[in-house]
Write a structure and sequence with these properties.
Number of domains: 1
CATH class: Alpha Beta
Helix content: 25-40%
Distance between the termini: 37 Å
Number of helices: 8
Strand content: 25-35%
Largest sheet: 9 strands, mixed
C-alpha cells in the first residue's frame, strides 16, 4: 500500500465527509510502521501548505488494551496551528458543521519548556520539562464506519484529530512538582452536556497518570526510527479521561476537575 495514495484517500474522505473502509481491513500487512508513513506524508503536505505543527496527541493510552490490540506502546499524531485554539476565560466556541461525526474528550494538555526524549522518565522528570498544564477538550472525527478502527487506522487518519481547545494554563514550578505527581493519577473530572452529567473520569485513565502518559510518549517516539523527538514549545494532549461523546450544534459542553487546581472549561458547539 502506497503511503501517498493512502494520504490522498484519507484527506479526500475528511474533505468530502464520506466514509471509507479501514486500511487494516483491506490489508493484514498494514502495520504501525506503514501507518506512520501515511501520517508523515500528511504532515509533509500540511507543512507544505504553510501550516505549522504545534504538538502531538496520543491515542490508546490504556495499557490494558495493548495486548488485545497487539500494541507495544501508545500511538500518536500531530496537531497544527489551525486545529489548536485557546479558550478565553474558560469559554470557547467551535463550529462542527463541517466535521464528520465529531466526538469530544476531556484531556490534560501539557506545554514543554524543553525537549523530552528520555526513555523511562518518571513523572517528576516529566514535570520538570513542563512549562504549564491545562484542562483541554480534544474534538475527534472519524471517517471509518461506526467508529470501528484499529490503532494503525487511527495513526493513518490524523489520529482522528479535528481540534484541541485549551483551557486556562497552570504554570508549573519546581515547588509544585511533588504535589502534582501525587494529584495527577487521583484527580477526577466531570463532563457535562447542557448542564447534565454525561461522563466521569480520572487521571488514572490516561496511562495511570497524564504525566506517565507523556513519559511513555517521549520514550515511544525515541524508539521509532525517523520520528521527530518532542521539542521545547510542543503541546501534548495526553489522552482522554472519559469515554468520548458525540457532539452536535447547539450543545454546551463543560468539564470540571476536583483534586487538581485547574480552571473549568466550557465549549459551545455551533453549526
Amino acid at each position: 500500500m502506497d503511503p501517498k495514495l493512502l494520504a490522498d484517500e484519507i484527506a479526500a474522505a475528511y474533505r468530502e465527509h464520506r466514509e471509507i473502509p479501514t486500511f487494516s481491513s483491506r490489508d493484514a500487512a498494514f502495520d504501525v510502521t506503514m501507518a506512520y508513513a501515511v501520517e508523515a506524508e500528511l504532515v509533509r503536505r500540511r507543512r507544505a501548505d504553510g501550516r505549522t505543527t504545534v504538538g502531538r496527541k496520543v491515542g490508546f493510552a490504556n495499557k490494558a488494551m495493548w495486548r488485545a490490540l497487539k500494541l507495544e506502546t501508545l500511538v500518536w499524531a500531530y496537531m497544527y496551528d489551525d486545529t489548536v485554539r485557546f479558550a478565553e476565560h474558560g469559554l470557547a466556541a467551535l463550529s462542527a458543521g463541517r466535521m464528520f461525526s465529531p466526538k469530544i474528550e476531556p484531556e490534560i494538555v501539557f506545554k514543554l519548556k524543553r525537549p523530552l526524549d528520555s526513555a523511562g522518565a518518571d513523572p517528576a522528570a516529566v514535570l520538570e520539562a513542563v512549562e504549564w498544564l491545562a484542562l483541554g477538550f480534544e474534538v475527534i472525527e472519524c471517517v471509518f464506519p461506526a467508529w470501528k478502527f484499529q490503532p494503525v487506522d487511527f495513526v493513518a487518519s490524523y489520529g482522528l484529530h479535528a481540534a484541541l481547545i485549551v483551557g486556562d494554563p497552570l504554570r508549573v514550578d519546581s515547588s509544585m512538582i511533588p504535589s502534582l505527581v501525587e494529584a495527577l493519577p487521583r484527580f477526577t473530572v466531570q463532563l457535562k452536556k447542557n448542564g447534565g452529567l454525561v461522563e466521569e473520569g480520572s487521571g488514572k485513565n490516561s496511562l495511570r497518570s497524564p504525566a506517565l502518559c507523556v513519559a511513555e510518549l517521549g520514550a515511544a517516539i525515541a524508539r521509532r526510527s525517523g520520528a521527530e523527538p518532542l521539542a521545547a514549545g510542543e503541546l501534548i494532549s495526553s489522552g482522554s479521561l472519559t469515554t468520548s461523546c458525540l457532539i452536535g450544534p447547539g450543545e454546551r459542553w463543560s468539564a470540571t476537575v476536583e483534586g487538581l487546581d485547574l480552571a473549568p472549561l466550557t465549549l459551545d458547539v455551533a453549526a
